[in-house]
Amino acid sequence: MQKQPRLLSARLFQKHRQVEVVLSRSVLAWKETEKSKKRSGSTSQTAHSHAVQVCEIVAVRKMKDDDQDSTDTRRSDKKEKQLSQLYPHAFTVSYVTRTRPHQWRCSDVTFHCANEGLCQQWVQVLNEQLSLLTNRPKSLLVYINPYGGKQRGQRVYEQKVAPLFHRACITGRLTEQANHARDHLKTEANLDKYDGVVCVGGDGMFSEILHGLVTRTQNDNKVDQDQPDAELVPCSLRIGIIPAGSTDCICFATVGTNDPVTSALHIIVGDSQPMDVCSVYHNDIFLRYSVSLLGYGFYGDVLTDSERKRWLGPARYDLSGVKTFLSHNYYEGTISFLPAENNTGTPRDKLQCRSGCFVCQREPSSKDNKEWEMSEDNEKSDKDGSSGWSVIRGKFIAINAASMSCACPRSPKGLSPSAHLADGTTDLILVRKCSRLDFFRHLLRHINKDDQFDHSFVEVHRVRKFRFQPRHHELVSLEDLSESPKKTDFRPICPTQSTCNYTGTHSSWTCDGEILPHAAIQVSVQCQLIRLFARGIEEQQQCVFEDPCTLWASEPSTPSSVD
Ligand SMILES: CCCCCCCCCCCCC/C=C/[C@@H](O)[C@H](COP(=O)(O)O)NC(=O)CCCCC
Ligand SMILES: Nc1ncnc2c1ncn2[C@@H]1O[C@H](COP(=O)(O)OP(=O)(O)O)[C@@H](O)[C@H]1O
Ligand SMILES: [Ca+2]
Q: Which domain of life is it from (predicted)?
């Protein structure tokens, strides 16, 4: 690893202990000095040595700066005030620490020094380093859905997020007309003023922001998104999600947890995660965009039923899930899809999309481009189903397109554990008609370690485009009307019954939790159309910066004050 010169080094104090503090371009490190260790009788080296990446420093402030407001009575502020009285020349560094897996917290370390000049110097140089991090947002447009999830959006923002944003000097315009977030973004908001848009809510709220921002970007660039073959322009503003919804799958699958503080910190440090977006059409009419689950049959029915139970909050999905499972309906139709090229991996490989995923980072090589162009040609010569496109006709309990893993607290590995966030593909999962018990076994595998695709009635394909055509409604009703129950019927289970109920009607598509008005749809994946304030799921405790030991040994590039 390349050794970086020190920008500053000094002997400072942490409470009563003397510490050696070193700053390079990428790392701030500190450790107790030998003298201080001896005095306190401590022998352990590691317990007293710390290192923080500069890019994970949230803020640096002189202790006195925040003490002007004597009306502030929060415990942390009181403590800070006491410290500043005790140590007049002190500064505090707030930085990211990893607590539980994927969970981030903001920790503070306060150093004090013998004179004001030294203190000023450290604050100035540290802040200069932070100002070089140009990916950090300074101004954010924040929308809160006060009615999402357990209706805690506003409280979560005010108590957990706003204080952190304030500390990092992020100013945001807080709006509570969340129901109008999409339209405000589409037409009214002056987006030039902002570095990003943040939503506080669930996947439905995220969807509002997505539609507002993508539509606005296309309009500004004179691209007609209603044309199925339009080449959409990627959005320049990143989107942040503070989870406060019912499923929070988009947050969970991009960060690894649905914790508001962790998300706020990913926003503050200016993370960036590109993400695919599916565009959904019905007979060449644009319907919606989707980033998580497009589901027909089981999930479509769960969502349709759950909308009537919104008052139950997140529990509505459990109740509707059980009800839909017991109904055990299947639907007939034809699904056609354009498979992704071989180099995109398969939904059944064990290559999970993680921070810095090389599958998503891969620039299409000239060979890949050629393959892709060939597929496009195939598509043109193949509107009625021949080579290039695969066509499957059948009876399905569920048809799911997962553009990301769809991991969430209900299913920590998700619907398609190896789906990628930004590879330009979606994983198409077909669950054919099967017994209720088999379907239960399949569902169960979403929460245990077994492979949910390892059933004879399940198949999964990685695709770039797909189309679905339900079996013709009129024909079905004429044939089956007498014996087919209505799709929303709820009947007691017959233990001997092992086949599904043919409804004779269509199901609906759920599109990131919203219901689509048409069953026949055409879908294509728009590779990396948006970016989130996230970095993908971190594999483990990240320690990717230079070894702090090299810092202690290296010489300062500019002479620095030592106690
Ligand atoms: C025997 C136990 C079986 C349990 C199986 C559970 C499988 C759960 C898979 C969940 C996939 C979720 C995909 C996410 C979709 C969200 O975008 C959508 C809207 O989210 P929000 O606005 O935050 O509410 N949520 C859903 O579609 C909920 C699906 C729940 C199905 C039980
Ligand atoms: N102020 C509001 N009043 C009512 N509905 C809203 C408001 N703001 C957003 N919504 C809508 O609420 C729906 C669900 O929001 P979401 O935040 O995803 O919660 P949940 O995860 O519980 O579904 C979305 O369709 C969103 O457009
Ligand atoms: Ca994808």
A: Eukaryota
3-state helix, strand, coil in the chain (%, to 5): 30, 30, 40
CA atoms within 13 A on the CB side of 264: 26
SS3 string, 321-359, reads HHHHHHHCEEEEEEEEEEECCHHHCCCCCCCCCCCCCHH
What is the rounded distance in angstroms from the CA atom of residue 330 to the CA atom of residue 298?
Answer: 8
Helix axes 436-444, 315-327, angle to 10 degrees: 150
Q: Across residues 440-453, what is the average pLDDT?
A: 97
- The secondary structure of 403-454 as a DSSP string is SS---BTTBTT-SSTT--SSSS-EEEEEEES--HHHHHHHHHTTTSSS-TT-
348 C-alpha to ligand 3 centroid (Å):
14
More confident residue, 85 or 52: 52
Q: Is the dihedral of CA 67, 68, 70, 71 positive or negative?
A: negative
Cα-to-centroid distance, 301 and ligand 2 (Å): 19
Q: Which atom of ligand 2 lies nearest, measured to the CA of 206?
A: 18
The neighbour count for residue 365, using CB atoms within 10 Å, is 10
Nearest to 527 by CA among 425, 404, 428, 375: 425
Amino acid at 265: L
Residue 544 has pLDDT above 50, yes or no: no
More confident residue, 503 or 524: 524
Q: Which amino acid is at 132?
A: L
Instruction: Give yes or no for residue 237 CB within 6 A of ligand 1.
Output: no
Strands (E), 136-290: 139-144, 171-175, 196-201, 238-243, 273-282, 285-290
For the chain, give the percent of residues with pLDDT over 70. 78
Q: Please name which ligand lies nearest the alpha carbon of 403.
A: 3
Which residues are part of the catalytic machinery?
203
- pTM confidence score: 0.88
Rounded to the nearest angstrom, the distance between the alpha carbon of 317 and the centre of ligand 1 is 7
Q: Which atom of ligand 2 is nearest to the CA of 148?
A: 19
Distance 151 CA to ligand 2 centre (A): 10
Residue 561 has pLDDT above 50, yes or no: no
Asked whether the predicted pLDDT for residue 343 surpasses 80, the reply is: no
Token pair recorded at residue 114: 């013998």
Residue 448 has pLDDT above 60, yes or no: yes
What is the pLDDT confidence band of residue 370, given thresholds at 50, 70 and 90?
Answer: very low
- The residue nearest atom 5 of ligand 2, judged by CA position, is 179
Work out the pLDDT band at 491, boundaries 50, 70, 90: very low
Domains and their CATH numbers in the chain:
6-134+541-553 (2.30.29.30), 138-271 (3.40.50.10330), 278-357+387-489+497-525 (2.60.200.40)
Instruction: Indicate if ligand 2 lies below 6 Å from the C-beta of 201.
Output: yes
Q: What one-character-per-residue DSSP string does 96-144 give?
A: EEE-STT-EEEEEEEEE-SSHHHHHHHHHHHHHHHHT-TTS-SEEEEEE
Amino acid identity at 406 = C
Ligand 2 pocket check for 470: Cβ under 6 Å: no
Those residues whose C-beta lies under 8 Å from the C-beta of residue 186, and which sit 6 or more positions away, are 211, 212, 215, 216, 219
